């Protein structure tokens, strides 16, 4: 690969490339961090991202609908108009535009930030410009979780593992100076003969040092629907990592990656004064109307620190949102958070079967505690969504209906966010699926509302059954059981099934979702009337549905993880 002559930093052109799912609306914090560290080096920095493109043209996903529209279609979100409400025009011809942009800018260096969902897209983009021989670095979660897979791609010569705040500018600087970049800590490089050099990891970064720079994103990228309104929203990372060990998530593997490389504790939180400074800078630069905290579980921190955050946030009082777990909430915490601007929360529930959730997913909370915690949360008045996953390894229809019954027992939720299990590299459940013969080892994931990649025999769910359940899951959670036979018919995507699905979806959208998360909700009762009183279930004691041998096959691959 040819290398540029030594250039002044201001003449050295870096293009950050952000392959993204269509209409995945929150701007990437990793991209903003890269922007800051490259600008701090004095480079000429530009961005090409794919969020507003119809990337189905490159056939990296079977799903022919963008991420945001798909969430509306499966009743996870209220309807909105991408162009009128968000100011976004969906574009076509991404590969040609990418090639054109590269030829116009003539970058000296390309930095990609890649998750598994966009790895195949990344390869296609690199193939489009391969003849230009531009030095590149492929970093992000996927190279960290599956470095052998990533570096084996013919188009890829250099990957970054772990955090990129240090290694990315080091690789760029070596390129600027015309020096080899094959020995830089935190990277793997591939020589012309295919030999791979695996370099050691650098120390973990101090997350207090870098304040993300979102200036390269188009202004419309900050517009996002939330609870029936459109806000100008900026994402904020207040800590990195997660203290939990959920087996469907690769965050625990990030922690294990740091441990195995003797880097220390991956879980780090911003000091409160530094978080204040970060918010001051980001609010000054971006003028947001809303703060979107992207932490894995925002309230998974010492109780005293939550109140310290509230005291600090008095200075801003912008509406804000976060994801967390029910066991971290109580009435006093919720009241104080709302005083300073909290307007919405997302809670992970995932499975309603206690045996499956505790033994397979490694989430130890009981159904009874979930129900009791959500009574407190519901009484607080803060709108919230609950996150559910279906199609997990070893899951049957009965287990999914346990999830439905637990959701029906949760007081006060505003929306349900339902996902199909995605077997990401680095997740213990991926290995469970492989070891049971339900997933080919070389499979690359697409995204969590596309068709299931697992191929499970009866009595487990197949891909068609999972698709059908996903399309009507909120309907099962909302309508009385007297309507369930009709809703089950609506799982089929034939003419009759779609007609029934539309009928029930219209009632759900009108009576339950409404125009905003502050609208009054009407609930359908067994007598067919719609009333404001919620008819709660009480699914405290879920059945033990998994026999010992089956449970062993779902947990043995995770021993020691």
Secondary-structure map:
Layout (H helix, E strand, L loop, with lengths): L12 E6 L10 H12 L3 E6 L17 H7 L8 H5 L7 H12 L3 E5 L5 H10 L7 E4 L1 H5 L1 H5 L6 E3 L3 H13 L10 E4 L5 E3 L24 E4 L2 E8 L2 E2 L10 H10 L7 E2 L2 H15 L3 E4 L9 H11 L6 E5 L6 H9 L2 E9 L3 H6 L7 H14 L3 E7 L6 H12 L6 E6 L7 H8 L27 H16 L5 H6 L5 H19 L9 E2 L5 E2 L16 H8 L6
Parallel strand pairs: 1-2, 1-3, 3-4, 9-12, 12-13, 13-14, 14-15, 15-16
Antiparallel strand pairs: 5-6, 6-7, 8-9, 10-11, 17-18
Helix pairs in contact: 1-8, 11-12, 15-17, 17-19
Description:
The chain has helices at 29-40, 67-73, 82-86, 94-105, 119-128, 141-145, 147-151, 164-176, 251-260, 272-286, 303-313, 331-339, 354-359, 367-380, 397-408, 428-435, 463-478, 484-489, 495-513, 548-555, and strands spanning 13-18, 44-49, 109-113, 136-139, 158-160, 187-190, 196-198, 223-226, 229-236, 239-240, 268-269, 290-293, 320-324, 342-350, 384-390, 415-420, 523-524, 530-531. The protein has 2 domains: 9-198, Cobalamin-binding domain (Rossmann fold), CATH 3.40.50.280; 227-558, Aldolase class I (TIM Barrel). Helix 1 packs across helix 8, helix 15 runs parallel beside helix 17 (463-478) and helix 17 (463-478) packs parallel to helix 19 (495-513). It is α/β, with parallel strands linked by helices and 561 residues long. Helix 5 (119-128) links the parallel strand 3 (109-113) and strand 4. Strands 8-9-12-13-14-15-16 form a 7-stranded mixed sheet. Strands 2-1-3-4 form a 4-stranded parallel sheet, sandwiched between helices.
């Amino acid at each position: 690969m040819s290398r540029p002559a030594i250039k002044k930093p201001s003449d050295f052109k870096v293009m950050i490339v952000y392959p993204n799912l269509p209409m995945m609306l929150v701007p990437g914090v990793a991209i903003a961090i890269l922007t800051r560290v490259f600008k701090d080096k004095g480079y000429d920095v530009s961005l090409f991202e794919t969020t507003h493109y119809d990337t189905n043209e490159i056939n990296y996903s079977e799903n022919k609908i963008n991420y945001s529209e798909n969430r509306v279609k499966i009743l996870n979100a209220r309807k909105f108009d991408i162009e009128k409400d968000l100011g976004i025009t969906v574009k076509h011809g991404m590969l040609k535009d990418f090639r054109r942009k590269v030829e116009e800018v003539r970058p000296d260096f390309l930095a990609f930030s890649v998750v598994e969902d966009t790895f195949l897209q990344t390869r296609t983009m690199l193939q489009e410009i391969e003849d230009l021989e531009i030095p590149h670095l492929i970093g992000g979660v996927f190279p960290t979780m599956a470095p052998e897979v990533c570096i084996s791609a013919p188009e890829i010569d250099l990957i970054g593992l772990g955090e990129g705040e240090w290694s990315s500018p080091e690789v760029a600087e070596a390129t600027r100076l015309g020096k080899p970049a094959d020995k830089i800590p935190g990277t793997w490089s591939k020589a012309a003969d295919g030999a791979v050099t695996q370099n050691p990891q650098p120390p973990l970064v101090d997350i207090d040092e870098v304040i993300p720079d979102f200036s390269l994103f188009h202004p419309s990228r900050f517009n996002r629907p939330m609870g029936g309104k459109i806000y100008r929203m900026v994402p904020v990372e207040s800590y990195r990592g997660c203290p939990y060990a959920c087996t469907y998530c690769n965050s625990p593997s990030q922690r294990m990656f740091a441990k195995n490389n003797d880097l220390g504790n991956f879980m780090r939180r911003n000091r409160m004064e530094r978080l204040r400074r970060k918010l001051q800078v980001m609010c000054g630069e971006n003028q947001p109307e809303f703060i979107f905290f992207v932490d894995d579980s925002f309230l998974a921190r010492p109780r005293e620190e939550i109140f310290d955050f509230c005291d600090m946030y008095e200075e801003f009082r912008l509406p804000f949102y976060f994801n967390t777990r029910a066991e971290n909430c109580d009435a006093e915490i919720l009241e104080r958070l709302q005083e300073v601007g909290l307007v919405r929360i997302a809670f992970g529930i995932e499975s309603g079967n206690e045996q499956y959730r505790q033994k397979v997913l490694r989430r130890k909370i009981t159904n009874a505690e979930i129900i009791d915690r959500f009574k407190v949360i519901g009484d607080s008045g803060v709108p919230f969504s609950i996150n559910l996953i279906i199609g997990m390894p070893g899951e049957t229809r009965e287990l999914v209906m346990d999830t439905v019954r637990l959701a029906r027992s949760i007081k006060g939720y505003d929306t349900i966010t339902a996902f199909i299990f995605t077997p990401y590299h680095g997740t213990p459940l991926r290995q469970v699926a492989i070891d049971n013969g339900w997933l080919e080892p070389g499979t690359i994931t697409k995204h969590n509302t596309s068709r299931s990649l697992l191929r499970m025999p009866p009595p487990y769910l197949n891909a068609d059954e999972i698709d059908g359940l996903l399309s009507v899951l909120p309907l099962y959670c909302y309508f009385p059981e007297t309507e369930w036979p009709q809703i089950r018919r609506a799982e089929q995507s034939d003419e009759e099934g779609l007609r029934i699905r539309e009928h029930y979806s219209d009632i759900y959208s009108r009576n339950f979702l409404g125009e905003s998360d502050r609208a009054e909700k009407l609930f359908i009762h067994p007598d067919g009337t719609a009333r404001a009183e919620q008819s709660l279930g009480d699914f405290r004691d879920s059945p033990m549905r998994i026999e010992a041998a089956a449970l062993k096959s779902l947990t043995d691959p995770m021993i020691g993880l």
